[in-house]
Amino acid sequence: MSGPLRVAILAGEVSGDHLAGALMGALNAVRPVEWRGVGGETMEGQGLAPIFPMDDIAVNGFDAIVRSLPQLLGKIREAADAVVAMAPDVLVIVDAPEFNHRVAKRVRRARPDIPIVNYVSPTVWAWRSGRARAMRPYVDLVLALFPFEPAAHARLGGPPCLYVGHPLFEAMRREAPPAGEALLVLPGSRRGEIERLMAPFGAAAALAAGDRPIHLLAVPRLRARLEELAASWPRQPVILSGPGAKEAAFAGARAALAASGTATLELAAARIPMVVAYRLDTIGKIIKWLHPVFPIVKAPSMVLANIVLGRNAIPAFLEEEVQPAALAATLGPLLDEEAAREAQAAAFDDFHAAMHVDRSPAEQAASAILDLLASRG
Predict the structure, then answer these.
(1) Is the separation of the CB atoms in 260 and 281 below 8 Å?
(2) How many Cβ atoms sit within 10 Å of the Cβ of residue 128?
(3) Per-residue model confidence as pLDDT tens digits over 29-60
(4) Cβ burial, residue 212 (10 Å; 0-12/13-18/19+)
(5) How far apart are CA 177 and CA 175, in angstroms?
(6) Residue 183: partners with Cβ closer than 8 Å, 6 or more residues away
(7) Cα angle: 187, vertex 193, 254; to 5 degrees
(8) Is 61 left (phi over 0), alpha (psi -120 to 50) or beta?
(9) Backbone φ and ψ of 212, nearest 5°
(10) How does pLDDT run across 144-176, given as a tens digit for each residue?
(11) β-bridge mates for residue 183, sequence order
(12) Closest to 249 (Cα-Cα) out of 191, 188, 178
């Protein structure tokens, strides 16, 4: 292949911009690349020539999506037409499946010779499993963040899938647990989550912590509301937010009480024993109510590390189970009893072994794309 590699790459949100930017950096380190697509500051810093600003498609919430639907449909057509006009050596779509997969389908219809790589598998293993088989006609390779996803795609009839590693795991990975003494509380990063979880988390923390300090990690935009909610806690926490807050919170933690989400992946990477809990919003309650008749959600656990492990090594409490006494009874041993801590430490050993990759996720992803192109001559 002579001349620079021509790559079209699309991301639709900030997390995808960071992921795609790292991939672009890894490919730029190997060979010259001409980039065209949709992304943010990170991707533009790696040489992206934007089709249009990423903010044009960054729409959150069902009502906002409905209002913006004509504009979004126009942006899907605009992105697909630009990719077809570029005639790249490969199209890489990064997360944002509701936008990116529609672009990919249009590109595949117009130019079936352009290879298409999907970086970040949709959660077909958790819900809407039929998406895996539906992807096969227009996706040539899925680059997965979790080691169980290749088997899930194979079982569900999806495209070829390769595990390349998870950047959040790599960023927080520790070989030994931190030496802190605090109970770390992570009530979530969305307003609805913290409204539902702060009261039981505060009561549980007061029961479990004893004389230990309680640290509350706050998303900066929600700090004011967290301070209001924490004011009624039986014991006042130290609230941490801003630059370096996560690293400081993790370094000072002995155990954690966390909302279900990506924070649990980071805690497992940092080897911090944890209890996980979640209370559902209205839509989640409806899905849970319908589940016995119409199984919609198929994930075996709401804790990502448990799914990777294939067993429920990390205790999890859902909905009506989220009671302060129950949470505290499970948290207490993780703070004070070596047997309970050692059981999670053994699980973390297995988790780290399963998540291990030889190089950075971005380098793994870059190599996979180059291997795909080489296999096509």
Answers:
(1) no
(2) 13
(3) 999 999 999 999 999 999 999 999 998 886 54
(4) middle
(5) 7
(6) 205, 208, 209, 212, 213, 214, 215, 253, 254, 255, 256, 257, 331, 335
(7) 15
(8) left
(9) -70, 150
(10) 999 999 999 999 999 999 999 999 999 999 999
(11) 214, 255
(12) 178
Q: In what order do the strands lie in the sheet with 5-11?
A: 48-50, 33-38, 5-11, 90-94, 116-119, 141-144, 161-163
* Distance between CA atoms of residues 6 and 87, nearest Å: 8
Burial (CB count <10 Å: 0-12, 13-18, 19+), residue 116: buried
Taking the chain, what is the end-to-end CA distance rounded to the nearest angstrom? 8
Asked if 212 and 205 count as a contact pair (C-beta separation under 8 A), the reply is no
Between CA 215 and CA 318 the distance in angstroms is 23
Report how far residue 69's alpha carbon sits from residue 237's, in angstroms, rounded to the nearest whole number.
Answer: 43
**How far is the C-alpha of 271 from the C-alpha of 173, rounded, in Å?**
8
And the tokens for 320?
Answer: 């009506």
Q: Where are the alpha helices (DSSP H) in 87-184?
A: 97-110, 130-135, 149-156, 167-172
Give the closest residue to 10 by CA, choosing from 82, 65, 87, 63.
Answer: 82
pTM for the whole structure: 0.89
Domains of the chain (ranges; CATH) run 5-165+357-375 (3.40.50.2000), 171-355 (3.40.50.2000)
Is residue 115 classed as helix, strand or coil in its secondary structure? Answer: coil
How far apart are the C-alpha atoms of 373 and 377, rounded to whole Å?
7
Q: Which residues of the chain have pLDDT under 50?
A: 60-64, 282-297
